[in-house]
Amino acid sequence: MHRLASWATSLASWAFLARRPGLAPCLQNKPMPDTPSKASTNSPPPGTPKLIWLEAARAHWNWRGQSRPPFAVVPGPGQVSVWDFPRPPQLLQDKREVVIRWGGQQVARSSRAVLVLETSHPPSFYIPWDDVDRALLRPGSGNSFCEWKGPASYWSLVSAVRSLPNVAWSYPKPLAGAEAIAGCVAFYPADIECSVDGDRVTPQPSGFYGGWITPELVGPFKGAPGSSGW
């Protein structure tokens, strides 16, 4: 079951974080990866009962944050390993300022992002719709279904002279435990400028996922070659 909590105030109760040396300095003042398959076929096959599909999809993961694989980078002081993030994912509030720009035009600015932390992924940042310029977004195409969060809707950036299809996604009717992101939208950072407290984020590898790599994170990150089973 997901919980919405403050990264800082929840530290003491999270065994998956507290047991790792070197995490606390980074986490004290910083408040979750999920990311759907980008407008893809990540959905229950026709005729498959959803509950059976969900149970199978959730059960097949080998890594769940209880231990790091031997190839994981060991975090140093002030760093966080994405291999310490849990499955099921954890939802957290982040008070850092998030700014999203599209060719110099501000799309969103927020200090109320909800992060999704999932084993091996950099977090996705879910921005409250109230902090987003809704006039720039139009419904996109395609669909996907996350075993943790439910059915995703996609969004395109559109102006009078240009467009960027399926650059964002949301979960308007999330599964139980992910209710905190119902009123939010997340953005793929590859083709737009996304920053967290002034630091430009690096896109999660491959373009298939939408996680944001910020300076304190160490991997390797899901999406890199050979990472499909992570």
Care to describe what's here?
Helices cover 8% and strands 30% of the residues. With 230 residues, it is mainly beta. A hairpin with an 8-residue loop joins strand 15 (202-203) and strand 16. It is globular.
List low-confidence stretches: 1-41
Strand content: 25-35%
Biggest sheet overview? 9 strands, mixed
Number of strands: 17
Rg, rounded, reads 17 Å
Oligomer: single chain
Distance between the termini: 21 Å
Mean pLDDT reading: 82
> What's the helical proportion of residues?
under 10%
Order of helices and strands: EHHHEEEEEEEEEEEEEEEE
Shape: globular
Count every helix, treating DSSP H or I runs of 4 or more residues as helices.
3
Class by SSE composition: mainly beta
What are the main properties of this structure?
230 residues; mainly beta; 9-stranded mixed sheet; 4-stranded antiparallel sheet; 3 helices; 17 strands; disordered N terminus
What is the secondary structure topology, with strand pairs?
Elements: E1 4-6, H1 15-18, H2 24-27, H3 50-59, E2 80-81, E3 90-94, E4 98-102, E5 105-110, E6 113-117, E7 124-128, E8 137-139, E9 144-146, E10 150-158, E11 163-170, E12 184-187, E13 193-196, E14 199-200, E15 202-203, E16 212-213, E17 217-218
Parallel strand pairs: 1-3, 2-17
Antiparallel strand pairs: 3-6, 4-5, 4-13, 6-7, 7-12, 8-10, 9-10, 10-11, 11-12, 13-14, 15-16
Produce a short descriptive summary.
With 230 residues, the protein is mainly β. It has helices spanning 15-18, 24-27, 50-59; strands at 4-6, 80-81, 90-94, 98-102, 105-110, 113-117, 124-128, 137-139, 144-146, 150-158, 163-170, 184-187, 193-196, 199-200, 202-203, 212-213, 217-218.
